[in-house]
Amino acid sequence: MKTALCKLVSICVLNALIFSALQAQTCNFTDLRLNSQSAVNSFSSSCKTINGDITISGTDITDLSPLQNIETISGKLTIQNNPALSSLSGLKNLTTAQHLLIYTNNLLNDLSGLERLKFVGGSTHIRYNAGLADLKGLDSLTNASTFYITNNDSLTSLAGLGRLETVSDILAISANKSLVTLNGLTSLNSVSRINIGENDALTNLSGLEQLTSVSYQMNIMSNKKLTSLHCLTSLNYLSEAYISDNDLMTDLSGLEHVGSVYWLVIGDNGGLTSLNGLNNLTSATNFIIRYNESLTDLSGLENLTNVGWIQISDNAELKSLSGLGTGTNAGRGSANGRISALAITGLVIRNNPQLTSCAIAAVCDFTSTGEATITANGSGCESQDAIEIACSALPVTLTHFKVDAENGTALLRWTTAEERNSAVFEIEHSLDAVTWYKAGEEDATGESNALVHYQWVHFTPASGLNYYRLKMRDLDGSFTYSQIARLRFDGQTAAMVYPNPVSDIMVVENSKEIVQLQIISTEGRTVYETRSVPDAIPVKGLAAGMYQVLITRQNGTVQKQRIAIF
């Protein structure tokens, strides 16, 4: 009996000790404020789980090591206005917090001390920390809900966020004036909303190469040095996007995998000259293009097939709607004799003072049956009536236009499905898609209801980017433009024979390396052939016209070049 009683007492004492220990490990606070180093020092070292909020804010706080046993905070941890605090190393065992707010701690260089933090259930705010250079210390964080990284003047990169994969609500990176790269976000693949704005030193979006989905909204705005969106090439799901006030961005390259959007606003981008990058966009429920003062046409939107509502307004240099839904699916069949690849259900075109060419198939189709808002554009686009008159006079339905490099020349090919009173195709060339000059012309068929194929060769393209468009002129002088095609020459693509065009003697480059040379007419007939290739070949006896030179080299390579003999 005595032995049994002793055992019972021992068990009771042990249970009491365990209960006491558990009680000591969990601490409950409504709003605990540690506003001095002495208050931090007096914090109970037995607290591992905190139920409630803790605020650390004091001018003399330098050491958080008395908090080193805290593992979980079910409320909000605020570290704010600590001018002497240079390290968070005292929080080395923290794994979970409901909210984390780190404000105005100017001696913090990074977030070392938070290496075990894996989960923040609510909001994370890292703001106004003047000395913060990177985010090292958040290396275990894999998921976040609301994450603001703003107004940290010394922040140069996002190193430390390498394991962050998803942000379920918003990731805001803004007003960090020294941030030059987003490197550090190497695992981020999905966000609901992402805001990147007012980062004055940011030149590109390097670091977002793995981002595939923005399920709600993307805002990229007011980044003074941002030149491109190139690093968004994995992005294939985008619901809403607002891209504005990025004056050094010339196009939208990087969005090539985006096929559809609900809202898309492209506005106030002063250097934007084309919408290239949206080449695979087929559907937009709401689309606004406004206040882009260098935009001259809408090249890049050739494959757009459905728009619920589109507004094109206040683009000071916009001269043509060329490119808008003018892909290879355009053809015949609507009330005005044409159908477009693009179906529009709402249309606003206003305050584009240089816009004089609006009679493209998609606009013609819409204005033939629907009411558009058309006002304050250039002559020919000043009203819906003016556009309808221009549409009725369109000489050509163009179904295909492309340009390819062919041994130092640019070969332009286009196809028409219908021609009415068409006179000529003027080929225009540009190096910047702004200033154009006439490079040549090709006579039109005039009247046709069948497919007609054309081609024309530009013998002197420039090194770098070359832009081409067709000016399709009617017999009465009216005209419309095609979409813009572009072609890059790397400066190493050289002609094998010259001059081109040639009238007398054709010079052959590196003739000793050539085992066969043929000159073939457009009918496919070989008019000259030799296996003993001289440095110069007389061509005076050949009829004027276009020919193809086929050269076979010693290594078996066959090269082709078009020439003109006159």
From TrEMBL:
Its main location: secreted. Residues 47-96 form the Receptor L-domain domain. Gene3D superfamilies: Receptor L-domain, Ribonuclease Inhibitor. NCBIfam families: Por_Secre_tail. PANTHER family: RECEPTOR PROTEIN-TYROSINE KINASE (PTHR31018:SF3), SPORULATION-SPECIFIC PROTEIN-RELATED (PTHR31018). Pfam families: Por_Secre_tail, Recep_L_domain. The lineage of its organism: Bacteria, Pseudomonadati, Bacteroidota, Cytophagia, Cytophagales. Residues 1-24 form the signal peptide. This is Por secretion system C-terminal sorting domain-containing protein. InterPro entries: CWI-Assembly_Regulator, LRR_dom_sf, Rcpt_L-dom, Rcpt_L-dom_sf, Secre_tail. It is found in: Secreted, Cell wall. Keywords: Cell wall, Glycoprotein, Secreted, Signal. Residues 497-562 form the Secretion system C-terminal sorting domain. GO terms for cellular component: cell envelope.
